[in-house]
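anyone seen this seq b4? input:
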Amino acid sequence: MRCMSTIPCVQPLTWTKGHSGNSTRVTKSCRPARKMDFPLGATSSTVNLPETVLSWDELKGIAASTETGKKIAEEEKLRSQGEGSPHVTAKLRLFGASEDDVRVTLYRDHAGWCPYCQKVWMMLEEKKVPYRIERINMRSYGEKPAWFLKKVPSGLLPVLELDGKIITESLVIMQIIEQTFPDIPMIPEEHFDRANTLLRLERQLFSDWSGLVFRPSGPGPFGGGARKQFEETFDKVNAALGELPGPWFLGGDTPSIVDLQYVSHIERMNASCLYWKGLQLRSTERWANIERWFAAFEERPSYVAAKSDYYTHVMDIPPQYGPGYSDSSDEVKEAQLKIDGHATWRLPLSLSSSDAEPLPDSMNPGDEAARHEAAYKLISNYDAVVKFCCRGMGERGAKQFGAPLADPTAVPNLNYKEKVDKLLRTTVLLLLDGSAGVSTGETSEEGKDVASCLAYLRDRIGVPRDMSYPAAMTLRAHLNYVIDAI
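predicted toks r here
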């Protein structure tokens, strides 16, 4: 299967045997007395920005000295050598092998948002197959490079290049990986028939999800039966996960190809069913086996690296599958307020496993680490980020793509560059020292233009492309804090 811009056809999938620490805190005493030299506009009595602003070099030094900064720097060093934990930006994965021995190149989407690429990515990680990575835009987000289209005229993702041979379609790719690299098997021989049965059930679930989310609801409390049909199929999936010991579909201690086939789309079902239908799939007694299954995945580095957040999903799903259709229930209204950030991107921020979008303890680094990660990431690419923000007051690109928030040819209005630069440095300082309070202010008339620049960035922070979910949430909230103060 592959990323497309319309609802994919539902085809039966089968598996064939013969298919060739210590915190660091910034205090006022370490801030040089450099005043802001442009007016920030009206501020609320409870929204206060620092009176001084540090240079990017000074902020970089502070971020690098934090425990989180040191950890990220070490991870980046290992990543450059093809080692360390999996990450969306990795270009080489060796697992202790020599680069000369690498036979595989994975071509996947640039942002980590393609569900079909996610399956293959996770499989290579789980099997520890050495591979190179080339990241390619999905059609909805920009042009594909000519050299890639020469290799793959269709332009579809994912693509695997094995010993110079081009292979497409995610399940076909996964079959060939399993046959070519039999160490760490992911389809136990004794469960071959069960695997095929479950793969057919996955296609039924995908079909029912498409009927529920991507088509207008019919009359009646269950949307003309689409919701009832989806829930009944979801019940079957939940029951299948309870038939063997352990959390996985085929039993054992590790996920199988069947688990990978399911997880990338159920992850997107979690977000889309809640956002457009008010249907909560996580943390419910009815689907306890699926919850246990997700908890097991959320302990695995291969999944943690690839997992996105609900906001990113509801933004990236329509360009790939078509528009989602919202019900008019109170549950939908409440979910959309939360996922869109209107009710959640505010300080103080509190993330937990009991949220509508649950953050498991295993993936929750705590407030300070999340703030410091967000600061580190912003600092590492600050010059490009400043210019990116200026698109908020710039001109739309001459060529538009399917994703509404994607505008790669937009022309930034660099008249706002100086103001944006200083406000981003202010945001980073607040992230580093944790001094931002409760935001109850309102943007002044004078500040609305530059606030549009910060909002342009806020609305385009994506997971996992830019940073982890906790870091993304705290950066969005801190940008809102600054927006309220100007």
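The chain has three domains: 28-77+344-485, 83-180, 189-339. Residues 83-180 form a domain with the Glutaredoxin fold (CATH 3.40.30.10). kinda curious what u guys think
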